[in-house]
Amino acid sequence: MYPLYNLLLLLAAVFLVPLYLLRGVRYGKSRRGIRERLGHFSDEQLAWLEGAKIIWVHAVSVGETRAASPLLKELRSTYPDYKILLTNVTETGHAVAKEHPDVDFCLFFPFDFSWTVRRVLQLVNPHMIVIVETEIWPNFVRQANLLDIPLVMVNGRLSDRSFPRYRRFRFILRPLLECFSAFCMQSQVDAERIRHLGADSMRIENTGNLKFDHDLIELSAEELAGLRQSFCLPESLPVLVAGSTHAGEEKQLVSIYRSLLDEGRQLLLVIIPRHPERCREVEKLLAEGNIVSRMRSSLKSDQPLLSSGQALLVDTLGEVLDFYAVAELVFVGGSLVPIGGHNMLEAALLGKAALFGPHIHNFREISAKLVRSGAGIKVANQNELRRQVALLLDDPVRCRAMGQTGRALIAENAGATERTMSRIGRYIKG
């Protein structure tokens, strides 16, 4: 199987790598990390790796990196003699990872050629590898097993959409799952699904969702005023923040915003595309709706404040929580289109009501808990989202109550990090 897999991967790379580079040119971004992905490191990187005791954590993108934050903090505290290496596949994930205070070093995850991952594993020589959620790269998993490196899946999940696809290839997955030392799954459903795919029951544990273990954020009135000032937001103007949006959603949001403004409402829209390079595309949609917009990166302290009817486009990374902090309402993107949703708990961390669409298969358990507790609202479509936004803007007391309920929900479901660390501790020396 592996020679055929390598051949197919090589053929795919012939087409995908040039496409990857051309996409960078299109959006005016330099594509970094190709050498790292091929297993070639700089002298500085090699010097850092030499002789270090390393725990390697892999988080594919932004969401997984943020989800792993409580675990990274606990790894740093529990194993101070170890260095923490964090790898990502996406550039946005890599950018967020580089700012994480509990990470010693960041690299791009290697291409899954057998010769590449073998070289990288030998250079890094980790004492343990922690895979966040469900990133199963065949050659990487196999080579780690051949080198006798403990491999632990944490915050593991198998969504309603992905599970049937995995099940079709169970005969291929079973030997790969045998390479893992442990599976720390988000829920009992996820635990049963990974067992059904062939994982050893003795290695599976329902440890809970790491996303519930983030510290609740409490900002003072002075801090909130400072954020509003830095974002050029008037003190009393209600703000609707749409976070982690995707193509197809912004057009619906522009229509909703236009409709609310036409009713005479005083409101300002902030859109945070999941991929910042799409901001110019979203800017055109806003212009077509006769909405004046500004880019976050262009804001200066001496500029006039934004006003009702305008929009702010966030083309920077790492400020999602800051924008949620100044919002009256938060819409969580990737849910009005079939992406699977993004982390709704980030709104709850800041005591904000969370709205999201029907496509939330990546956050099945979290979205259900938010809806049941009254901390979040799931809408079926654009029209229902518009109606719910209007209702909540007219009822600020309910808005605040939903936010406080979300904070209580997070506190009630904490503990996944402790359970995960207990499992990890079996495979690493302190």
Keyphrases for this structure?
single chain, alpha/beta, Rossmann fold, 2 domains, seven-stranded parallel β-sheet, 20 helices, globular
Helix amount: 40-55%
Strand content: 5-15%
Shape: globular
**Sheet with the most strands: spatial strand order:** 3-2-1-4-5-6-7
Q: Which whole number gives the mean pLDDT? A: 93
Unreliable sequence segments: none
> Helix tally?
20
Q: What name goes with the CATH superfamily of the largest domain? A: 3-Deoxy-D-manno-octulosonic-acid transferase, N-terminal domain
Structural class from helices and strands?
Answer: alpha/beta
Main β-sheet description = 7 strands, parallel
Number of domains: 2
- The CATH architecture of the largest domain comes to 3-Layer(aba) Sandwich
Annotated CATH topology of the largest domain: Rossmann fold
Description of the molecule:
Strands 3-2-1-4-5-6-7 form a seven-stranded parallel beta sheet, sandwiched between helices. The chain is globular. The chain is built from 20 helices and 14 strands. 46% of the residues lie in helices and 15% in strands. It folds into two domains: 22-208 and 415-424, 3-Deoxy-D-manno-octulosonic-acid transferase, N-terminal domain (Rossmann fold, 3-Layer(aba) Sandwich); 221-412, Rossmann fold (3-Layer(aba) Sandwich). By secondary structure, it is of the alpha/beta class. Helix 6 (91-98) links the parallel strand 2 and strand 3 (105-108).
